[in-house]
Amino acid sequence: MTDPFDLFRAWYDEARNTEINDSNAMALATADAQGRPSVRMVLLKGFDPRGFVFYTNQEGRKAGELAANPNAALLFHWKSLRRQIRIEGPVTQVSDEESDAYFASRSRDSQLGAWASDQSRPLDARATFERRFEEMQRRFEGQPVPRPPHWGGYRVAPERIEFWQDRAHRLHERRLFVRDGTGWREGLLYP
Fold first, then answer.
1. Does a structural domain hold residue 135?
2. How confident is the model at residue 82 (pLDDT cuts 50, 70, 90)?
3. Positions marked active-site
4. Cα dihedral sign, 126-127-132-134
5. pLDDT, tens digit, for every residue of 96-114?
6. Which domain holds residue 71?
7. Residue 16 lies in a domain
8. Tell me, what CATH number does 53's domain have?
9. Any domain includes 60
């Protein structure tokens, strides 16, 4: 039996050395209260046995969907390694302390952008957003940029983790880990 987090770390570390851009990119799938799905790319910003963490504007579409249906699926696809990892589970918000710490690590322009953006809402013109960004530059000039109250992190606590490895002639290898109490049950799936 392999611990799925140890296997994830090994594959992730390998991807960080082989993927040219954004080895931490993952597709995040959510669904609204009626079950209508939506998917977009986000960046993994941390993981441990509690789950996989990403950060976003908590007033945008994905946050609204997570409020209505706090379950998600993640997909990592590393083409250079011919591997992918699928993760499914419930989602919770991370603590304010975790969100503050990550926000403080971001570039200043990214911090200002979090204040300037009404993420997922209609925008009349790019110039409007650029003006708002410039307003935030003036507002916080000469001082640290605090985390906006509407911005924070989410943690996907996996109940299922599937490791997919490409093989010749589409005879792929699929290892599935399913949460079983405080541990994991491991099995294989047909390709």
1. no
2. very high
3. 170
4. positive
5. 999 999 999 999 999 999 9
6. 4-106+149-189
7. yes
8. 2.30.110.10
9. yes
